Amino acid sequence: MWDKIDNLSTMASFYLERTKVIQSNIANADTPGYKPKDLVFEKMVDEQMRLKRDDPRHIDPDLSETKFREVQSGDIRGYDDNRVDVQEQLAKLAESSIMYKALGENLKKEFAKLKLVISGR
Question: What is the pTM of this model?
Answer without folding.
Answer: 0.69
